[in-house]
Specification:
581 residues, 5-stranded antiparallel sheet, mainly beta
Length: 581
């Protein structure tokens, strides 16, 4: 320490804190010792210079007031220990830093105020399971244990036994019952039988304390070294010794079997070669190849391949034939079906439809004129009607009618309709009824004529016999009757008195003496008829050509109209209008 006073002072002591005892110096004071028992204020640390020591050394006291320079000593010692701070081992002193292994799950966080937080994210890094992907922990990871078939996993937060310091996970296999679907292995009772069931068949194999019981067939592909075999039926590939049964003590001996005569059933494994009786045989010429059936000397009548069955002759199926494919081709010239009714668009195995498929149902008829065409006859589902097309196209069972076809037939029985307009023949040999726009029987054609319930409009000529109407509107009425040659009391017309009461006649006559036109009214009372001529014009001014008369004929009972003419070559034409009684 260098203090620069005005003069050098040796052994200057400051015992009190009064002003008179405080050394104030504005310059350097050089001395050997300064002893201060009170507070010494040297000001800023930069004002104090102490020589000696090395970089980063610190001042050290010996406890009596003597200072010296020394290297800083480490104050951290690291130990390995358990949770109870016992079993201290592996001590490391003079530790200047702690390193935490990140790969082991440690993390270090600065929480401020000179503190850090050490966190342990996981207690393992990698779990390796043979045949499975490795499990690698990421920070605070979670491991989930999932119980598989017939495996029970038990966990507990309470140590068991209580003397242990850890919780546990326990795996128990349920060995009483192991299953997959309806196949299983069961041990119903402790120290009991082992029962094996397969494909829903219970206890196919039962292992007891004395042996093995097989409920079905035991197929052994390898060797079976056994003592005695007791079985109802047995199938053996190789017998090292003699095979005997109760009824046949010596079936065959060791060696090659040249022939085998079996009167009952024969069951074997693979049969290599040809199985024949005379010139009928079954052959599998190559391994994994076709199965060929030949009969009565005809080779390969039936060939079963990996893709189907080929029949080279006729095939007779006495049972039902069910085809589950989408397309069936019949490459034949003639098809005969005994069934009188062929049903289309049923469900599987002939079941009735349960919903509208939206598809047309019928028969597509392929033909060729200038090109390949398809005709169609069937049910048009979109219009809910039968349709017949001479040219159509079919896509996804939907028919597009391009051209409707002509229909040639004998009798059409029933109604032909479009909307509420139709013509109908209700009964055999009956009337033909025409209904239009919802109006029934507007026109009825009977065996005797035509009945019109409305108005009959004829823009052309109408050539008819008798007309019975309420109102006739016409430009002209022209008689279609044939000319009647008149002499004496020639019959011109007659009608039943019960049908009509009055008749009006327009009569035209021609003869060698000229021409005459007559209008006559007639009425009757059922006994007598009365007539009057109320209009007559004749080209012969000297005399009439016709003389008109009437009566009720005593033979026919009809009302009659007669004409008499004295002129030669008299011809008469009549138009008649009747009025009903």
């Amino acid at each position: 320490m260098a203090i620069k006073p005005l003069n050098s002072i040796v052994g200057y002591s400051v015992g009190g804190n009064t002003v008179s005892n405080i050394i104030l110096a504005n310059g350097d004071i050089t001395t050997n010792n300064i002893t201060a028992t009170g507070i010494t204020n040297l000001g800023n640390v930069g004002n104090v210079v102490i020589t000696g020591g090395s970089a980063n050394y610190i001042l050290k006291t010996d406890g009596t007031g003597n200072l010296s320079w020394t290297a800083p000593a480490s104050t951290l010692t690291v130990y390995e220990s358990n949770a109870n701070a016992g079993n201290i081992s592996n001590t490391t002193a003079n530790v200047s830093g702690l390193l935490f292994d990140k790969d082991s799950g440690f993390s270090v966080s600065n929480v401020g105020s000179g503190n850090v937080l050490i966190s342990l994210g996981s207690t393992f890094k990698t779990w390796v399971v043979t045949g499975q992907p490795n499990l690698v922990a990421q920070a605070e990871d979670t491991v989930q244990f999932i119980a598989g078939n017939n495996l029970v996993i038990t966990t507990s937060n309470t140590p068991n036994p209580p003397s242990q310091l850890y919780k546990y996970i326990r795996f128990d296999a349920d060995v009483q019952y192991v299953s997959n679907g309806n196949s299983n292995i069961a041990i119903p009772s402790a120290n009991g039988n082992v029962n094996i069931s397969a494909v829903g068949n219970a206890n196919v194999l039962v292992v007891t304390g004395t042996g093995v019981n097989v409920a079905g067939t035991a197929n052994i592909s390898g060797n079976a070294n056994v003592g005695n075999i007791g079985a109802t039926n047995g199938i053996f590939t190789t017998v090292a010794g003699t095979l005997t049964t109760a009824s046949q003590p010596n079936i065959t001996s060791v060696g090659t079997l040249s022939s085998l005569s079996v009167s009952g059933n024969t069951t074997s494994g693979n049969f290599i070669g040809t199985f024949a009786n005379g010139n009928s045989n079954i052959a599998i010429p190559s391994a994994n190849g076709n199965i060929n059936f030949s009969a009565a000397g005809n080779a390969n009548v039936l060939v079963i391949s990996g893709t189907g069955i080929n029949v080279n002759g006729d095939s007779l199926i006495t049972g039902n034939l069910t085809v589950d494919g989408n397309i069936t081709y019949l490459n034949i010239d003639t098809l005969a079906v005994e069934d009188p009714i062929i049903q289309l668009q049923t469900g599987a195995n002939g079941a009735a439809p349960t919903s509208n498929s939206g598809k047309d149902v019928g028969t597509g008829l392929n033909y060729y004129d200038t090109q390949a065409r398809i005709a169609f006859m069937g049910w048009d589902v979109s219009n809910a009607e039968f349709g017949m097309a001479s040219q159509a196209s079919i896509s996804s069972e939907i028919v597009t009618f391009s051209t409707y076809g002509n229909l040639r037939l004998g009798n059409l029985i029933g109604a032909v309709a479009n909307g509420n307009s139709n013509f109908n023949i209700p009964a055999a040999n009956g009337n033909i009824n025409l209904s239009v726009a919802g109006n029934s029987n507007v026109l009825v054609v009977t065996g005797t004529g035509i009945n019109v319930s409305g108005t009959l409009n004829a823009t052309g000529n109408a050539n008819v016999g008798n007309i019975g109407v309420q109102l006739v509107t016409a430009n002209s009425l022209i008689s279609n009757r044939s000319n009647v040659s008149v002499t004496t009391n020639t019959l011109l017309d007659e009608f039943p008195p019960s049908t009509y009461r009055t008749a009006k006649y327009t009569i035209s006559a021609s003869s060698d003496n000229g021409y005459q036109s007559v209008e006559t009214l007639l009425v009757h009372d059922g006994t007598n008829s009365y007539i009057t001529v109320y209009g007559s014009i004749c080209s012969n001014v000297s005399s009439d050509i016709l003389d008109i008369s009437s009566n009720i004929n005593g033979t026919s009972g009809n009302v009659t109209l007669y004409a008499t003419s004295v002129s030669a070559n008299t011809l008469v034409k009549v138009i008649t209008m009747y009025l009903k009684t």
